[in-house]
Amino acid sequence: MTTPAGANEAVLSQAARLRRAWAGNTAVWARLQNGGILFPFLALFLTLSLTSSSFATKTNLLNILDQQSATLLIAAAGTLVVVAGGIDLSVGATYTLGGVTAAHFAQTENPALSIFLGIGIGLLVGAANGLVVTALRINSLIATLASFFVVGGLASLVSGGNLITLFDRPGFGKLAQSEFLTVRTSIWLALGVTAVLAACLAWTTAGRYMYAAGGNADAARLAGVRVDAVRVLTFVLSGTAASLAGVVDASRVLSAQSTGGDVNLTFTVVAAIVVGGTSIAGGEGAVWRTVVGVLFIALIGNGYLLLQFNSIYESITTGVILILAVALDSWSRVRRR
Amino acid sequence: MVQEQRREVARVELIEVSKRFGAVHALTDVSLRVARGSVHALVGENGAGKSTLGKILAGVVAPDGGRMLLDGAPASFRSPREALEAGIAAIAQELSLVPQLTVAENVFLAREPRAAGFVRRRRLRQQFERLAETAGFDIPGDVVAGRLRPAEQQKVEILRALASSADVIVMDEPSAALSRPDAEHLHEIIRRLARAGKTILLISHFLREVLDLADTVTVLRDGRLIRTSPARNESEASLIDAMLGRPLTAMFPPKRAPGADAPLVLSVRDLRAPGVAGASFDLRAGEILGLAGLVGAGRTELARALVGASRRESGWVELADGARLPANPRASLRAGVAMIPESRTADGLIFSRSVVENVSLSSLDRLARLGVVRRRREKEATRAILDRCDVRTRAYSAPVRSLSGGNQQKVLFARVLMGNPSVVIADEPTRGVDVGAKLAIYEFLVSLAEHGLGVLLISSELEEILGLAHRVLVMRRGEIVSELRGDEISDAAILTAAFAEPAAAGAA
């Protein structure tokens, strides 16, 4: 039997085509992995748009953003902490303390001053966290867990355990409730601060040092990075963002109360950071990922609401997705080896 | 008949095994026969595929193509455990002990003598002592593994492989972290294991070690098999030729020592620190000062105390302008004293970040305006410096972990160079690096000196010290016990000073 040269060539070119297709596939695959949660998020967004007529409306979407503004603020700053190799569990308490402090002073003082004090207290909490973690060399998980209880207690102390209402102080509400280009200022604030934090992490020397400190602290120190200072900075940013979030929420609903720290908020924030694809081990991650993570978790909740599913399953779904996200991440890490 | 004998069933046989990681072909159609009871060495440059081959045998990595036969029967492993069950144990390049457990616990990890789920501690201890004695290791079983020096941890790894009663042991660079006597001890153990019928696959950069120990040598280059031949037919030169694909003329560039009038760039006076018992020396511009000694003699400790990476107890370090060097790494860098640390994994690189970010890390202040990194400038500056350091990669935005060991080391050199230092301290700069990269690093160190920098070279490889240093300090037990210049620098003189007891040592 003779093999025509043409057939042979056809087989060869077929093989080449297959190889190219495979190479193309791996490139797509790499991009998928790099995008992480972005594609599941877009898929969820699309599904909800198609299955619920009230989902993709301006009102609903702005509502989601408004409700998520606090989480977004805290998670954006928390990303910096995680990238630099730490974690801040105290944010749920700092959020409460910021809210009640601002509300407490707003009862008697002018709004601007009370807002300033509310935010300032978070800055102090963050600085304290940072110093405990760096100077006393206490693992940040433990240090901020402890400060969660301390700060939560302080919040109850400030509020006296009561609901502080500010319905007679509409000036305080202007921080979150004003509108600019038909969008509430709570949303503008959250987006603005998030953008600044994202830029800080991605583009500044401080951001580079955060990645270095989280990626390999010993190496960073030898390379001349002030690892401790960088870590303190991330905790200060996280604390400040948390109390700002508390102040924004107090302004949003014109009231604040404390029953200790907000555990749920702390957990949601950590979940959003991880689901977004920022490595809990430090050194890898980005603020935009966290933004997608926050919105992804929010869409799950919104979807349950709009599609009238039993909301009991909402938190189960979130938990399962968290596991999937981390599993996918560690799996892709193994593949890269 | 002769043909029949030659086809005697091999303990391990690989047939046209291939493996790729992404776009990189780590192994292409490699076939290998490892005879029972032999020491079979694998040599090649970093990235030649030696470690991948070892990992395939150990079940750590699954091949993409090809077959594996054990005693002639097809086999495939999905995990190291399966490999272990088939009698193949591996000692990894990176040590993999549980630092919090004791030595004995590490050795018998997952194989502890148990009763109703509880570990039988006394039994464990007895088993350990028996094993350590058979191996000829003098190592206490109740010490926490994390507190041992790398050399001793290496011994624990070997004991662990022996404890598994595997009859094939894959050793990936077992002596890379060992001092000379420890390495020689290891060689004795390898010979003993082979005599006892164990099969050893030895992956090593040390060609002399390979020629001493191995029965058969396989050379790999770029993931392909170059040749397999009896070790007695090979020499260092023939192996290097095969590994490089070209002959190697001279390992070391010619020495050009600075004049006696060359200005001092660094003076160290009575420096005391943990592991350093008072060290004084000067370093001149254009000089390569070798720091020799056994592992644990205090060389790394001296280097770290010098740049302030570890605490100084007393003494001081003075710069060319008479200023005292503050005891922290950041200030040292700013003053022009830079260090390339002993372990690029632990103290050098940020593995998760890109090549560019790793290089520019120490110089970001200069590359930024108002705290914002000027990316284009950063990239240009980095590219220029990487070219100078002969880093063979175009993937500047790829994570630095994707580079070969040699290129990783050059990235560290690039970082140091970017800061325009006047003193470079290089601690074991060629550890775990292939022959080609070694030569590049040698040339690089020499060119630094020729540009008027002072270089302090710490190395456990005597040839490096002999081939590069203009002057040699020998350390023992935290002290500088000898200073050798010019013709005094010899193999024997360094070893004598490194080993001799203080009373017998020729004073500095």
Describe the overall structure.
The complex is a heterodimer of chains A (337) and B (508). Chain A has 14 helices and 4 strands. Chain A has a single domain, classed as ABC transporter involved in vitamin B12 uptake, BtuC (Orthogonal Bundle), CATH 1.10.3470. Chain A has 337 residues and is an all-alpha fold. In chain A, the strands form 2 sheets. Chain A has a two-stranded antiparallel ribbon with strand order 1-4. A two-stranded antiparallel ribbon of chain A has the order 2-3. The longest helix of chain A has 31 residues, at 5-35. Chain A has helices at residues 5-35, 38-51, 58-83, 91-106, 111-135, 140-159, 170-177, 185-203, 205-215, 217-222, 227-253, 263-276, 287-306, 312-336; strands spanning 164-165, 179-180, 183-184, 255-256. Chain B is of the alpha/beta class and 508 residues long. Helices cover 34% and strands 25% of the residues of chain B. The model of chain B is unreliable at 1-5 and 502-508 (pLDDT under 50). Chain B has 18 helices and 23 strands. In chain B, helix 14 (375-388) packs across helix 15. Chain B folds into 2 domains: 2-243, P-loop containing nucleotide triphosphate hydrolases (Rossmann fold); 264-499, Rossmann fold (3-Layer(aba) Sandwich), CATH 3.40.50.300. Chain B is globular, with a radius of gyration of 24 Å. At the A-B interface, helix 9 and helix 10 of A face helix 11, helix 12 and strand 19 of B.
Can you describe this structure in just a few lines?
Chain A is an all-alpha fold. Helix content of chain A is 78%, strand content 2%.
| Overall pLDDT level of chain A | 86
Number of strands of chain B: 23
Largest chain interface and its two residue counts? A-B, 26 and 33 residues
H-E order of chain A: HHHHHHEHEEHHHHEHHH
Radius of gyration of chain A, Cα only, in angstroms? Answer: 23 Å
Strand order, main sheet of chain A: write it out. 1-4
Low-confidence parts of chain B lasting 5 or more residues at pLDDT below 50? Answer: 1-5, 502-508
CA-to-CA gap between the ends of chain A? 47 Å
| Count of individual domains of chain A | 1
- Second rung of CATH, namely the architecture of chain A: Orthogonal Bundle
Helix content of chain B: 25-40%
Oligomer: heterodimer
Instruction: Calculate the terminal CA-CA distance of chain B, rounded to whole Å.
Output: 66 Å
Alpha-carbon Rg of chain B, integer = 24 Å
> How big a fraction of the residues of chain A is strand?
under 5%
Mean pLDDT of chain B: 85
Domain count of chain B, please report it.
Answer: 2
Kindly identify the CATH topology of chain A: ABC transporter involved in vitamin B12 uptake, BtuC
Report the biggest beta sheet of chain A as strand number plus sense, adding barrel if it closes. Answer: 2 strands, antiparallel
Number of strands of chain A: 4
